[in-house]
Amino acid sequence: MKKKIIKRVAAALISAGVFTVAALLGLFYNIDQSISDTLYQTPKALSGNIFVIGIDDRALEDIGPYNTWGRDIMSMAIEALNADENCRPAVIGIDVLYTGESDPELDDWLAEAAGAYDNVVTASVANFGTELVTEDTGNFYLEDYAVLSYEEPYTQLRDVTTQGHINAMYDQDGVLRHSILQIDLPDGRTIPSFAYAIYQKYAAANGLPVELSMPTDELHRFYVDYSALPGGFYDGISVSDLLSGDFPAEQLAGSIVLIGPYAAGLSDYVTTAIDHASLMYGVEYQANVINQMLRQDFKTEVFNLLQAGLLFVLSAVCLWFFLSFKLRYALPVWLLVSVGSVLLCRGLYSAGMVLHPVWFCLTVTVFFVGAVGFNYVQAALEKRKISATFKRYVAPEIVGELLREGTDALGLGGKLCDIAVLFVDIRGFTTMSEVLTPQEVVSILNRYLSLTTDCIMKNHGTLDKFVGDCTMAIWNAPIEQEDYVMNACKAAVDMVEGSKALSQELLEKFGRTVSFGIGVHCGSAVVGNIGAEMRMDFTAIGDTVNTSARLEANAPAGKIYISREVVDRLGDRIKTTSLGDGIKLKGKSQQFEIFLLDGIAE
Predict the structure, then answer these.
(1) Interior angle at CA 120, CA 115 and CA 125, nearest 5
(2) Cα–Cα distance for residue pair 444/181, rounded to 1 Å
(3) Rounded CA gap, 251 and 137, in Å?
């Protein structure tokens, strides 16, 4: 038992260690991120003060292809939004890059329109790459996310607007789950994200906290909790509507208005965590990040090492449990811990923590399936071992019943059963053994014991033991049987009949012969594995066994003695001759009626 416990603990620790390392190495990454997105990213109620105005297909159809647009288009759009001082947006975010100078007149017009009311945020972008960095000590290293260049609006527009970068950093599966809060430029400047710059301007105008405290990593990234699916912030307002003046200006009053590409041909779209199947336009992604900042609902991604430690401990405990307990206990535990872990992750997400929901659920599920398979194989091997052992002294039919009932039928201890007991002994064997060689003695003994065994097995009995030249068999144990008393009597008759041919053969070969004395009785006895932990014997004990042994001891050569109990149970199904009740059996205080079994009735 100690060895089994040690092996299970070792298997649990090793397996948990392997899966923990696999999780840290990212082998579960794709399935984990996919299920995380499904579990965590759900549409939420929108604040109603963020509007997307699209450079959409209608605008391209009305105004012309986008590459033919001049900067006057955006100038007129900004002027249209600011035309009515009572309906003026709090912030206008232009999700379009205006780097470098073009037509001086149009450049001045855009700068004038954007700077008139100090409510415009323009986009900038940093270009990242790998750079060799040399330290003051002379050491050098490669920096993977170095800012190689920075593109910002042309001078006039930059001076009259607030800038925010529109860089996006995808996860390794190509899904956008994080936003870069700020970028540190080599010249010492810090550029906020486009969404953060818009939020800060809106917060200043509405008395909200301008500076937000949110958990970020070493690259200033934070986890985006999306609020809307693709199209959620778009009410169908086009840049064309701004130019024609046909837009709900009063609805945009004091709000955040984002203007950006909203047509497939402009290729400004991303794959987001809230919907892998549908692409989201970049301007809508900005709207989602701004809305998260307005909600001030930020998530902390729990350190992988901490999650790995918990995974190791909890999964090891679960695997040990699955290996140690039966399926009826392991199944509900698996369901509880796997489903419970997912629900716990969802609850902790609502509380502001992001965990890997698949790590534990997948590991425990694999461990459960593996443990069930392992236990099944172990049970099959155990059954094979039982079968191989018991077929040596139990009829195949009984072995089948034992395997169906399981090893519980063979547990240490005993139970009270009604059984039939047969004892058979070789008469004259001791005298014969004195004049024969040891090899001849063993040969004769084996022939007789094989005969008794065959008769027992043929009649579905359980061979209990050999004691020298004596054989003991029982019926109706360890598995209940029908007509077990009759089967015991049939086995006795078969032994007598089989011994006749064998006796003649021995007479011719050795000049001597032997025969059987047999006793059969039935009644209650204690049956089970009896003995010590190191050595036990499956046997029957009690008065029924002793009586059968006494009947055999009194039976002459070639005769079968049975008790009144056997006769009463079988009635006219057997042929018997009463020997009266004047016989006294050893160990019995009273006279005992004995019958001679003459045969089985037709």
Answers:
(1) 110
(2) 97
(3) 60
pLDDT of residue 359: 96
CA distances from 269 to 178, 264, 265 (A): 15, 8, 10
Task: Of 497, 509, 466, give the one whose Cα is nearest residue 597.
Answer: 497
Identify each DSSP E strand in 429-534 by its residue range: 462-467, 470-475, 515-531
Q: Among 421, 429, 420, which residue's Cα sits nearest to residue 516?
A: 429
- 247: part of which helix (H) or strand (E)? none
**What's phi and psi for 271, nearest 5 deg?**
-95, 125
| CA nearest to 392, candidates 441, 485, 454, 481 | 454
What is the Cα 513 distance to its own chain's centre?
68
pLDDT of residue 48: 86
The region, left, alpha or beta by phi > 0 then psi within -120 to 50, assigned to residue 28 is alpha
Radius of gyration of the chain (CA): 46
Residue 535 per-residue DSSP state: S
Distance of CA 304 to the CA centre of its chain: 21
pLDDT value of residue 394: 54
| Token pair belonging to 201 | 């301007």
DSSP collapsed to 3 states, 575-586: EEEECCCCECCC
Q: Name the packing angle between helices 29-40 and 327-350 (round to 10°).
A: 60
Between helices 357-390 and 396-405, what is the axis angle to 10°? 160
pTM score above 0.85 = no
- Secondary structure (3-state) at 552: helix
The span from the CA of 143 to the CA of 146, in Å, is 6
pLDDT averages per 10-residue partition of the chain, 602 residues? 86 96 95 96 90 96 95 97 95 96 94 96 94 76 86 96 96 95 94 98 96 94 96 95 94 96 94 95 97 95 96 96 92 95 96 96 96 88 71 57 57 81 87 78 85 92 87 90 95 92 80 84 90 75 92 91 94 91 66 89 82
What is the per-residue burial (b if ≥16 Cβ within 10 Å, else e) of 214-241?
Answer: bebeeebbbbbbbbbbbebbbeebbbbb
pLDDT of residue 530: 79
Residue with tokens 């750079």: 131
* Residue reference for tokens 């090899």: 439
Enter the tokens of residue 252: 């945009």
The answer to whether the CB of 585 falls within 8 A of the CB of 554 is yes
